[in-house]
Input
Amino acid sequence: MQYRQVKVLGGKGEDPDRFRAALRGIAVDDRGQIYAAGDSEIKVFDAAGACTLRWRTAKPPISVAVAPDGSVYAGETGQIEIFDATGKRIDVWRDEKLLGLVTAICVTSDSVLAGDAADRAIHRFDRHGKFLNTIGKDNPVQGLLTCNGVVNFAVDARGVIHVANPGKHRVEQYTPDGRLLGHIGRFDGVDPAGFTGCCNPTNVAVGDCLYTAEKAFPRVKAYDFSGQLLAVIAEDAFEANCRNMSIAVDAKRRVYAVDTVKLAIFVFEEVAG
Amino acid sequence: MSEDITRRALLGNVARGTVLLTLAGGAGFLIRKANGQVVWQVDAARCLNSRLGAVNVAACNLCTTECVVPLSAVRAVNEFSKCGRCNICPAYFNITSAVDAHGLPSEKLCPRDAIIRKPIGKVDPEDPANNFYEYVIDEEKCDGCGKCVMQCKEPLGLGSITLRIRYDKCVNCNRCAISGACPQSALVQLPVEQALRPQVLKWPGE
Output
């Protein structure tokens, strides 16, 4: 499998389609629209890369997710803001304990999962905001070792939650009720099939396969669900000081990755053949 | 608050105290005898080894080679409150060395073996990846070469290790020999109280 870079969105700047100081999280919806959490707003880019909509959030957004019904969830410190597809705020869930630092969100048909870096765990709620259970925290082997300051995860089509556990150089799989199913990944400082550094991978995305992002040196890779490396999607594209690079994948298997220094979203697609 | 975080917070407080006591122990006489005077210290924000943003460069060892004290008065100090207690610490291991049977790098980074690694808290003997580890600088061995500092720096590590002048070793030259050699002008004179404070590193533009 090989990938090529096909597009760059955003970048540092004052224009509406650019980011002044921060780009922290991205998500992609079924239509290929890209949602970016940066500075103090959510920006929406269409599949062609044009910024079509933007709105302010109450606090700087750290993460973003799109629900199957098109509503948009922004993870912040101490809260999640919920917007309709036009950017009108429809709800806010505040909880200093369960939503201390929301660095990732996934919305499924029946629940909302919030990665809380302050608690080094994922907190699961129903669609009305009622707390259901915690994932990762009660892992009998010390839970999520997220010394990089971010809890990041993705949910696959079967409902399995794939969680980056960078201190263990693994991606762990959990059931929605928090049962650890297994893990893939190992440390290796040379072999690209492994994860290098003190703590990698930092971010994950899931589609037909599993995608990971690493820091120092930043790269994005694809694995099958057994942990076999399928491709190094990109490793030279990013600024060397990038860390905690949010990644996403769309229905056409295009992979989106944030350069946290250049404040840009790099888009990669599979090369046919 | 979780048991883990409570333990971590406790360890952090103990560690902070240890670092400060270590630095302050040597400096105690300075505070008593030279309160109000200035002393030399490494400015971590200027030091090539710890300055954020400088990547893909070799570690600078001028603090080792230029100090007039036989085993340099500059030592690596690990501020435990910032340390991730990682299984694989890039400051401890040579992370590009071959992986051994336990899944760990087979070589250490420090040429003087001056970092001690031990598991802390609840220990899983079966799988080292499941444990937290404490990394302590052996000050009798450390010569301030800066290799661990360079590897601990963000984004590879968390930047908990920096070079500091130890005042029980430093002879407080009027003109510090390292300061004359340092191309980054990272050796600075500070009031004693300021020289003992933990340093805050910032990214370029912050």
